[in-house]
Specification:
By secondary structure, this protein is mainly alpha-helical. The protein has 4 helices and no strands. The chain has helices spanning 2-11, 19-22, 39-68, 76-81.
């Protein structure tokens, strides 16, 4: 779908000038506050992301299919339940 979108956009560009989006006021004219992040906070965030990302991937790619092996060929009612 990304390839189709890219090809169609190149064949028929909209030539949007972003004037409308640049005129949007940001938080009633206020600037966003600077966020001060320490290296320790970023490392903790990375550790959390990697741990849960790998865990979820293992769950979806390995555990879930292994749990469906005992069912064999799914009947229509089992597939509807699944």
């Amino acid at each position: 779908s990304g390839l189709i979108t890219t090809v169609m956009s190149l064949m028929n560009p909209d030539n949007y000038d972003f004037v409308a989006t640049r005129s949007i006021q940001l938080l009633d004219g206020q600037e966003l506050p600077e966020i001060q992040e320490t290296d320790a906070e970023l490392k903790d965030a990375k550790k959390w992301i990697v741990r849960f990302g790998v865990g979820f991937t293992v769950l979806i790619v390995i555990v879930w299919p292994v749990l469906s092996l005992p069912a064999g060929v799914f009947s229509e009612s089992y597939f509807s339940f699944w």
